[in-house]
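**Discrete fold encoding**
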Amino acid sequence: FLNGFTPYSIRSIVPGGWSIAVEITFYAILPYLFSKIKNEKQAFNFFLLTLLIRVLVITLMEKYPLIADVEIWKTFLYFNFLNQLPVFALGILFYFIISKNTFQKFNFNNSLVILFTLLAILQLSIGIPFLLPDHIFFSIFFTVFAICLSFKQPIFMVNKVINHIGTISFSMYIVHFAILYWLSYFKLLDFFNNQFLNFGFKFLIVTILTILISSVTYKMIELPFQKIGKKIIKNLEANSTVDNNHTTKVALHD
């Protein structure tokens, strides 16, 4: 889980391994964030703080690279934890916005919102991503999309097929790498000269195969191990209860 802290290994452990390292780092600081972020205003301020930290640190790291390889360093700057932290901040903000399932009058700092909006407009106008790189812009729009979807679920977005995909999504994440590899190995990905038609076909084939195979691995692998995990947690909780009861009895006896 420490591969995210070195440019030479952040992407070299397993496919998508950078995201695992980033997520684990976030989990490590999450208890502290729980103690500090209590409402949507604090969540929004935390999001702005992560943007500021990202700009300062990434700018400094761009100016003073720690390794000679330019491409590896550039890759590390994009995938590292601080560059991805605003995405997690948006997830926290999303939670507070929908936690009561009703729109609320957000008590944000108006001055900060105005400043942030003006800077975003300036960036879009000049085309230089000094404030928000593309992955954060995408995250903002996905957050808005998720908020809207939490209050109204159109049938073309929320149905049995989509719900099933959501259920097996972790298995799909693991499986699709192998499917892409084998389709590429047997040259079953490129059939059309038109890039848009070719992409659409590849997307359809990979998605269908991933859903079919993941439905099997979900039932045969993921669910059984979930049950094992729940059993372990249940036993740990039971042992903890017994130990607490024993400690209480000893204390009362003394």
Remarks:
- The first helix runs from residue 17 to 36.
- The radius of gyration is 23 Å.
- The chain has a mean pLDDT of 87.
- The chain is about 75% helix and 0% strand.
